[in-house]
């Protein structure tokens, strides 16, 4: 997958490298994301920008940690031939202040939380949805845990009660 990355309002760090690693990890657990025709834009931005996007596109008047805007249905993605012109999978946006606050609350590095949110967003772009049912949520979380483990990142859900 080709990533177009834009960074606005995040501190200097290796965000592009992290995004590329998270994308490869997501493609390991959701092989439909490994199609080389796919292109995704990823915006590392501020809470203010994500708040605006969330209000305009989702009618939710608040910032959130990650937004995903799919351009393909799950069926279209699953049936995408390996050869042909580039196809836009969708767009992701991560909100710095919210991500930082959540990482601090979980006592984990911001880079680990950002990687989790990138994987989470990519799975949404691939048509996975944790809001459909508990079964769907558990499946999506399992994919996230596997992808992050391949990056050497601990289970982000490990602190919940079983």
UniProtKB/TrEMBL annotation:
GO terms for cellular component: cytoplasm. One of its GO terms (molecular function) is metalloendopeptidase activity. The keyword Metal-binding applies. One of its GO terms (biological process) is rRNA processing. Its cofactor is Zn(2+). Pfam families: YbeY. It is an enzyme of class 3 (hydrolase). Keywords: Cytoplasm, Endonuclease, Hydrolase, Metal-binding, Nuclease, Ribosome biogenesis, rRNA processing, Zinc. Zn(2+) binds at residues 120, 124, 130. It is found in: Cytoplasm. SUPFAM superfamilies: Metalloproteases ('zincins'), catalytic domain (SSF55486). Its EC number is 3.1.-.-. It comes from the Bacteria. Binds 1 zinc ion. InterPro entries: MetalPrtase_cat_dom_sf_prd, YbeY, YbeY_CS. Belongs to the endoribonuclease YbeY family. Single strand-specific metallo-endoribonuclease involved in late-stage 70S ribosome quality control and in maturation of the 3' terminus of the 16S rRNA. NCBIfam families: rRNA maturation RNase YbeY. This is Endoribonuclease YbeY. It comes from Pontixanthobacter aestiaquae.
């Amino acid at each position: 997958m080709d990533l177009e990355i834009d960074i606005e309002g995040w501190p200097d760090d290796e965000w592009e490298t992290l995004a590329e690693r998270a994308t490869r990890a997501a493609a390991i657990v959701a092989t439909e994301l490994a199609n080389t025709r796919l292109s995704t834009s990823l915006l590392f931005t501020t809470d203010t920008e994500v708040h605006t996007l969330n209000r305009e596109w989702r009618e939710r008047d608040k910032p959130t940690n990650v937004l995903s805007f799919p351009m393909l249905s799950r069926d279209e993605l699953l049936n995408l031939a390996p050869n042909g012109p580039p196809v836009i999978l969708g767009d992701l946006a991560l909100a710095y202040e919210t991500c930082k606050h959540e990482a601090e609350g979980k006592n984990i590095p911001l880079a680990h939380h950002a990687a989790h949110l990138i994987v989470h967003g990519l799975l949404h772009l691939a048509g996975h949805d944790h809001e459909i049912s508990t079964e769907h949520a558990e499946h999506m979380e399992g994919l996230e845990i596997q992808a992050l483990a391949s990056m050497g990142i601990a289970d982000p859900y490990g602190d919940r009660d079983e």
